[in-house]
Amino acid sequence: MTPHTLFDLSGKHAVVTGGATGIGRMAAQGFAAAGADVTIASRKIEACEQAADDINALGYTGKVVAKHADLSSDIGIEAFAQDILASDAGIDILMNNAGRTWGADLGQFPYAAWAKVMDLNVAAMFHLTQALLPALRAGAAIHDPARVVNVGSVMGEVPMGDGAYSYAVSKAGVHHMTKILAKELAQDRITVNALAPGPFQSGMTKFAIGQEEGVARVNERVPLGRIGRHSDIAACVQFLCGAGGSYITGAIVPVSGGINIATGPSIFGEDT
């Protein structure tokens, strides 16, 4: 292993759900830049195809292809899994990124918002991983494990509802499921880790940081002074899925600018 190959993913095949936009697209670009071929999947196939075209136009060694996937039901999960398993590409990396959120004030948060969010963010993540285990196991090796990367959230680490109660709880579930699967799949030479992102610009956060005014406001609330950049996600997945991540499993990586360790004011005052 030489330094210039530490982040090389040439010859690998990555599958990224929810890969048309946001963090999934950032990760897909990072994989392609490192040489991996990438399948991105989304309910909106047109957006997925556009994302694949845009990334491929950047001239990376790795190529991106788009597939339709509706992971909101067991039928959709099974159909997508069978489509992937039927291909000749194999799977070296699975990134479970597809998710949804729901916002409403406490006192008016609807019952239906729990099932919709938990089903996609937690149950679908588990069942797709389970369905793709044969392909992940087939490509796994003791010195180069297969990789699963789940997308959680800093809201799953710290107690902030911010009107997205079922989302925050679902992401805590993602973190815990990540650790459970990491423990159970280590014997199969499959690592399972999660990202816990803070604020990144995406369709899900457009309401808050879609405009410069919102970005400036949120920047001031992040301990490191800024929202996340595309490269923050790309570099993390290159690390976790390259040589650097081959001996790491069960980790929740806080890509949140320090929000994960932010606490309240000093109890005894600044002069103590």
Describe the protein.
- There is one protein chain.
- The protein is an alpha/beta fold.
- The chain has one domain: NAD(P)-binding Rossmann-like Domain (Rossmann fold).
- Helix content is 40%, strand content 12%.
- The chain is built from nine helices and seven strands.
- A seven-stranded parallel β-sheet has the order 3-2-1-4-5-6-7, sandwiched between helices.
- The longest helix has 21 residues.
- The mean pLDDT is 92.
Short description:
The protein is 40% helix and 12% strand. By secondary structure, the chain is an alpha/beta fold. The longest helix is centred in the middle third of the chain and has 21 residues, at 165-185.
Query: Rounded to an integer, what's the Rg over CA atoms?
Result: 18 Å
Helix coverage percent: 25-40%
Low-confidence stretches: none
Which word captures the global form?
globular
- Look at the helices and sheets and give the structural class: alpha/beta
Element order: H for helix, E for strand: EHEHEHEHHEHEHHHE
Average predicted confidence as pLDDT: 92
Largest sheet, spatial ordering of strands: 3-2-1-4-5-6-7
N-to-C terminal Cα separation, in Å?
50 Å
CATH homologous superfamily designation: NAD(P)-binding Rossmann-like Domain
CATH topology-level fold name: Rossmann fold
- Name the CATH class: Alpha Beta
Number of helices: 9
The number of strands is 7
